[in-house]
Amino acid sequence: MNDSEVESKEVPPSSWLGRLRHLFGGAGISDREDLQTLLRRAGSDGILDAEAQSIIEGALQVADMHVRDIMIPRTQVVYVKVEDDADDILPIVISAQHSRFPVIGDSLDEVIGILLAKDLLPLAQDKENRRFNIKDVMRPATFVPESKRLNVLLKEFRENRNHMAIVIDEFGDLAGVVTIEDVLEQIVGEIEDEHDIDDEAFIKEHASGQHSVKALMPLEEFNIHFGTKLPEAEFDTIGGYLLSRFGRIPQRDEEIRLQGLNFKILSADNRQVKLLEVTIPKLEISEGKAL
Known about the structure:
The protein has 291 residues and is of the alpha+beta class. The protein has 11 helices and 14 strands.
């Protein structure tokens, strides 16, 4: 029995893996573009389903992306101070609903550790005597440069079992934070977090007056909700309309103002916009609608 017969028995040609190997076997792939072309062909031929194709393409793109492309910027970092006591910290944790928080010293550029929200759970049993020193529970902080490639960062996250890293700029100052979830979302797509909306809904209104809106929200429904007159005949979704106005796929945290509304990209990858933040400026609110 030769090697090809052994391989044929180990991976039957009828399986998707066998067909994929057959497709790529004599393809003469010389660069990334050739591979992507073959992946698209595998998708159109039914060898790969859409989800598998998207994950493979996402994994390829991660190798070309850097931390700066996906990090949570400095202005949006939710942190706690090393001198804070339990009464100071708990409201921040409850409001943000994150699992990890940078701990800072005298300034935002002095990150000295990471606080895990789960380490505050013992306080629930000690409401009367909250003897708490953040230094006793905080974990060491990991620092990475903005230029680090995402595939390298993911490898380090896995090896060191870290879930958050502090991103620093060329001067050593805080540029933002990045989590393992941020990296994985570039491969597998959006992972539910505090911004997520129920599957049955396209929009979620927050107490601050801001709205989280799915990019797939039909433009007609968006116009009804916000009292806008965006062109429904030309576009099906609010995400599609915004792409036309940007003229490209915008990056996370980019903003644009249209018809009295501020639009901010909350979640996007190299292929599509996923989640938006829509705000009605306070000066233009009149009986709940933009003037």
